[in-house]
Amino acid sequence: MTKTARPSKLVDTRIILCGDNLEQLPKIPNESVDLIYIDPPFNSNRNYEVFWGEAREKRSFEDRHASTQAYLDFMRPRCVELHRVLRPEGSFFFHCDWHASHYVKVMLDQIFGESHFRNEIVWCYTGPGSPGIKQFLRKHDVIFWYSKSSTKWTFNADAVRIPHHEKTKANYKPGLEGSGFMEADHVIHESGKVPEDWWNIAIAPRSKQEYLGYPTQKPLKLLDRIVRAASNENDIVLDAFCGCGTALRAAQDTNRQWIGIDISPTACRVMAKRLRDECGLPENEKLWLSGRGFIVRDLPWTEEKLRKIPPFEFENWAVIALGGIPNKAQVGDMGIDGRIYPISSMPQSSGKAAGELDFMDVWYPVQVKQMDKVGRPDIDKFEAAMMRERRTKGFFIAFDFTSEALREIDQFFRREHRIIIPLTVREILEDSLAKKLV
């Protein structure tokens, strides 16, 4: 990648923006983005706080829009904004499934113009079906591709060619011009063929490292093909419904600049972790300014905003802010929302023989309540959880605590010699935790 802090003079790149994209997109200048890909979930904006496979959030994810018209009303102003920020020779890809694809096509024709429609790409995949089904299995999504211009757009055919079948190559002979193979007047390219408008690409493999458990996670190979085909190196790629960040990963891997937007603080943090872990890209303001890192902006680091986010988002934020790991199952969590593994418990050497996983039993429970005043009953429940799990130290996070709650914490230590550290949101935001975490 070009070692410059800001390849565009108009817009910052290598940046994740947390918030409603209808509020974030106006910050992006007109005609400043080369490629846009979006995969918006067919559910309400307020229910887009979906996190990897947890029962309560899956139910939220499945809480669909009241009607297709509500979904279109939600998407139309966002697509108008996305059209505005797209460069004259840029491309726009809208990924959707059967819920509203036909209506989305009509809407995009109105916004971009019918003559700007390039392809209806059908992404085919396989997987298990439901028993007793009374219809054909739904095993494809649709991706609508539009260009800003009706005459000129980026399409890198050579970057996305796929190998010919051996039988196909065997039936052809070298062409006279030496550029491929031919039979009669039919010529095929030596290095492969340009994919048709149906793509047989496997879904994100659940048994491999790529799969993060996100309900609508798309395979990296799918996004890699779109990014390579419709943009050039150092072009700017925008995903305004980032989810788990596959489009950003594809852009980073192919030396593109990128901008991500997502309303979920949890998703933004997971995206950041993915970029750090999988791409080796540091999350650091100074390195970002020198062109060697990325940043996350507009996370809800205020008490006012944190009071308004969904409870499970608040729980994830609080646990992650302490350096802990949120629970995968938030239904029936038995009074524990996350765990902190102290650095002192980490093994000094690696390998099974060195007891690499022994430290997993050394952890501190974290309980989180999105409450103004945590009372004595809440502390009692956490004490029971600590006793059940045989933990000697735990953390309780809330906006504040009653005097009765603090008194019980003190009595619990005197009675059981177990420590509960009460932490307020203000203390976390002010980064005044060091003296309380020892």
Description:
The protein has 438 residues and is α/β, with parallel strands linked by helices. It has two domains: 15-160 and 195-297, Rossmann fold (3-Layer(aba) Sandwich); 303-437, Trna Endonuclease, Chain: A, domain 1 (3-Layer(aba) Sandwich), CATH 3.40.1350.10. Helix content is 32%, strand content 19%. The protein has 15 helices and 17 strands. Strands 9-4-5-3-2-10-11-1-12 form a nine-stranded mixed sheet, with helices on both faces. Helix 7 links the parallel strand 10 (236-239) and strand 11. It is elongated, with a radius of gyration of 25 Å. The two termini are 42 Å apart. Residues 1-5, 44-64 and 344-360 have low confidence and may be disordered.
Q: Structural class of the helices, strands and pairings?
A: alpha/beta
Q: What's the alpha carbon Rg, rounded to whole Å?
A: 25 Å
Unreliable stretches covering 5 or more consecutive residues:
1-5, 44-64, 344-360
Beta strand %:
15-25%
The name of the CATH architecture of the largest domain is 3-Layer(aba) Sandwich
Q: Largest beta sheet: what is the strand line-up?
A: 9-4-5-3-2-10-11-1-12
Question: Mean pLDDT across all residues, rounded?
Answer: 82
How much helicity do the residues have? 25-40%
Looking at the structure, what is the overall shape? elongated
Strand tally: 17
**What is the total number of structural domains?**
2
Q: Classify the fold: give the CATH topology of the largest domain.
A: Rossmann fold
* Assigned CATH superfamily of the largest domain: Vaccinia Virus protein VP39
Determine the number of helices (DSSP H or I, runs of at least 4 residues): 15
Q: What CATH first level of the largest domain would be assigned?
A: Alpha Beta
Largest β-sheet summary = 9 strands, mixed
Distance, first to last CA: 42 Å
